[in-house]
Write a structure and sequence with these properties.
Layout lengths: L1 H20 L19 H4 E5 L4 E4 L2 E6 L5 E5 L3 E11 L8 E8 L8 E9 L8 E10 L10 E3 L10 E7 L3 E6 L2 E7 L12 E8 L19 E14 L21 H14 E4 L17
Antiparallel strand pairs: 1-4, 2-3, 3-14, 4-13, 5-10, 5-14, 6-7, 6-13, 7-8, 8-9, 9-15, 10-11, 11-12
Length: 297
């Protein structure tokens, strides 16, 4: 009898562990992606590099990496605030060393001294989940002294099975990152020195970052598994462009007038942090936090 009880307990604990591994967050109560019109790739973007590693079909864009090249694209206009999203489906299997990215940047306008806001999918090895890395650079040098503000997450779903919507909302007061309208990170403006204020373009890319992408470079890109493909569709880029009139009002992320997150959205974000946050730069004792004053102010 005792043995049967033991087996039952093991079964219950195993089932609980498996179910928790894909436990979905509560409803955020507000869905920013539904408020903004989608566009096709050709309406808002152009190839930036690797044109032979990029194809558009049925309003979806495929970009891929092989041993000869990766690929990237860029919005046709810069923005000073807005909502920027895309539905993305990632490559399954061995993708170590490969980064699929969707981000804001003004690197071409300010080389060596640029701002950047990243959503990056860090490739992985067989049986291990992708890591979604969010990052914010402010006037980065680009010479190895750039100050990253990384927060890394695992996801409550397999991002290789279906398209999921990933987005950045950039307002004069906040940067908010979303996954399927669930807010996963809020980066508030605490000073002009720690917040991007200059116009940025929207980019996407796939490239080889074997030196650091997977477990700090332990696992490299293996081109026996090429091509590595990132699929994008349902593009959204709405807000105040760099050419908009000064009276242009920034878009919001919540149902309230404040423009920030609602109480319910904050609750859901805390839930995500408790279940799926795997790295926060502010908690890293190896970092020099005099360079990231927003961590303690």
């Amino acid at each position: 009898m005792g043995y049967l009880v033991f087996l039952s307990l093991v079964f219950i604990l195993t089932e609980a562990s498996v179910s928790n591994a894909g436990y979905w967050p509560p409803s955020p109560g507000f869905y920013p992606s539904s408020k903004f019109r989608s566009m096709t790739f050709n309406q808002g973007f152009r190839n930036l590099w690797g044109p032979n590693h990029q194809s558009v079909h049925n309003n979806a864009l495929d970009i891929w990496l092989d041993r000869t090249s990766g690929s990237g694209f860029k919005s046709v206009k810069p923005f000073r605030s807005g909502y920027f999203g895309a539905s993305i489906k990632l490559q399954p299997g061995y993708t170590a060393g490969v980064i699929t990215a969707f981000y804001l940047s003004n690197n071409e306008a300010h080389p060596g001294f640029h701002d950047e806001v990243d959503i990056e999918f860090l490739g992985t090895t067989f049986g291990k989940p992708y890591t979604l890395q969010t990052n914010v650079y402010i006037r980065g040098s680009g010479d190895g002294k750039i100050i990253g503000r990384e927060m890394k997450f695992h996801l409550w779903f397999d991002p290789t099975k279906n398209f999921h919507h990933y987005a950045i909302l950039w307002s004069p007061n906040d940067l908010i990152f979303f996954v399927d309208d669930v807010p996963i990170r809020r980066y508030p403006r605490k000073s002009s020195a720690t917040f991007p204020l200059r116009p940025m373009w929207l980019y996407g890319s796939i490239w080889d970052a074997s030196s650091w992408a997977t477990e700090d470079g332990k696992y490299k890109a293996d081109y026996r598994y090429q091509p590595f493909v990132g699929r994008f569709t349902n593009f959204k880029a709405t807000g105040c462009s760099a050419y908009s009139a000064p009276r242009c009002h920034p878009v919001t992320a919540s149902p309230g007038r404040s423009g920030g997150l609602s109480r319910r959205q904050h609750m859901v974000m805390k839930w995500v942090h408790s279940h799926y946050l795997v790295y926060n730069y502010c908690w890293d004792n190896k970092r020099d936090h005099s360079l990231t004053p927003e961590c303690w102010k």
